[in-house]
Amino acid sequence: MSLPRKIHDVLTLTRVRGLSARRIAEGLRLGADAGSVDALCGYFHLRAGRWDSAREESAVILETCRSQNIGIRVLGEAGYPPLLAEIPDPPPLLYVKGAGIDLLNQTCVAVVGSRAAVEFSLRKAGELGGIFSAPPYVHVSGLALGCDCAGHAGALRQSGRTLAVLAGGLDMVHPAGNKDLAEAILAAGGCLLSENPPGTRATGKSLIARNRIQSGLSRATIIVQTSVRSGTMSTARFCLQQKRILACVVARGMEAEASDLFGGNALLLSEHKALPVDSPDDIKRLRAALAPQGDPR
Fold first, then answer.
1. Per-residue confidence (pLDDT) for residue 3, from 0 to 100
2. What is the CATH code for 101-290?
3. Which residues, 6 or more positions from 161, have their beta carbon under 8 angstroms from its beta carbon?
4. 100 backbone dihedrals φ, ψ, rounded to 5°
5. Taking Cα atoms as reference points, which of 61, 134, 125 lies closest to residue 93?
C-alpha cells in the first residue's frame, strides 16, 4: 500500500519534532505499508505519544487554515505542482491562498534579486515582471524588498499573473510593509504560497529554504541583481541543482557597472552557468528555451 496522502496525516508528520521535511518527502515518494496509524508510525519510527501530540497541533492548524481560506496541497496528490515535486527536497505540504491556485501548474518564471537594488535593477525587474507574467507565463518572486517587489509591481501594472512565495506563514507577510502588495496580488487573481503553516514567522533559515521553492516552481530563474555573497546566490545554486534554466541580467550604466552589487551576475555569466539577459534578442532566446519542444514561439 502507498503511504497515506490525507492532509491531516501528512500535516501531523510535519509537526513531529526532529522529523525533517526531506525525510517526510522521501517517505511520500517511496511509499510504505501505512494502512493504519501504527503502520505510519512504524515507517517513521515514531512512538504513539509523539504522534498524538503532533496530531493535536495539526488539528489546530487545519482549523486556522479553514478560518483564513488557506488551502493545502500535498506532495504526490492532485493539485501539487508537478515541477516542484521533481526537486530533491520538495515541501511535503504547500499552504496556498488566492484564486490563482491553478497558476502553480503553468509555465512559471522566477524573477529575483537583491533587496539593495539600484535604480537600474528596479526598472529591469519591473520590465521582466511584466514580460513574464503575460500568458503563457506566470511570474514568481518572494515578496522581498528591492527586486522582488519591483517584479511583482511590474506584473500587476501589466495586469499579469504573479504569485509570491513566502518564508513564513501566509498570515505573517514578511516584510510586514509588503502586506498591501500581497493583498494586491490576491486581488489581481494571483496567489501566495508557503511551506510553513499560519502563525510561522520568517527566519534566516526559512528565507533561504523559500528560495528553493521559487526556483523549483519555475522553468527558469532570472537573476536581476546579486553580489557574490547575496542570499540571491542561493536561488541561483538551487536553480542549477534542480537543472532548470538560469539567466542573469547584464549590468548597464555607470550606477550598475561600477558596483560590486552585480558581482554574482558577472560570476555566473563568466562561468557560463547562466544565459545573458541584455537585449530583446536575449528575451527571444529565453522564450525559445522555455517553449515546449516543437513550439516555434
1. 43
2. 3.40.50.450
3. 100, 103, 106, 133, 134, 135, 137, 138, 139, 155, 189, 190
4. -95, 35
5. 61
Q: Which residue has the cell 525587474?
A: 125
State the pTM of this model.
0.92
Question: Which stretch of DSSP H or E encloses residue 129?
Answer: helix 119-131
- Single-letter amino acid, residue 287: R
- Quick one: cell of 147? 527586486
> Left (φ > 0), alpha (ψ -120 to 50) or beta: where does 189 sit?
left
Residue given cell 562561468 in the structure block: 271
List phi, psi (to 5°) of 17: -65, 135
Question: Cβ(52)–Cβ(45) under 8 Å?
Answer: no
| Contact of 219 with 244, CB cutoff 8 Å | yes
Contacts of 116 (CB under 8 A, 6+ apart): 146, 261
The segments of the chain whose pLDDT lies below 70 read 1-5, 31-39, 254-256, 258, 293-297
User: Residue ranges of the domains in the chain?
Assistant: 7-70, 101-290
Spatial CA neighbour of 245 closest among 282, 280, 281, 205: 282
Q: Which residues pair with 108 in a beta bridge?
A: 138, 218
- The predicted pLDDT at position 109 comes to 98
Q: Whose CA is closest to 73, among 11, 144, 138, 141?
A: 11
pLDDT in tens, 221-237: 999 999 999 999 999 99
Phi, psi of 192, rounded to the nearest 5 degrees = -115, 145
107-112 and 218-223 strand pairing = parallel
259 in Cβ contact with 193 (< 8 Å): no
* Strand (E) or helix (H) holding 66: helix 48-67
In which residue are the cell numbers 510535519 written? 14
Handedness of CA 76, 78, 83, 89 (dihedral sign): negative
Can you give 141-178 as a three-state secondary structure string? ECCCCCHHHHHHHHHHHCCCCEEEECCCCCCCCCCHHH
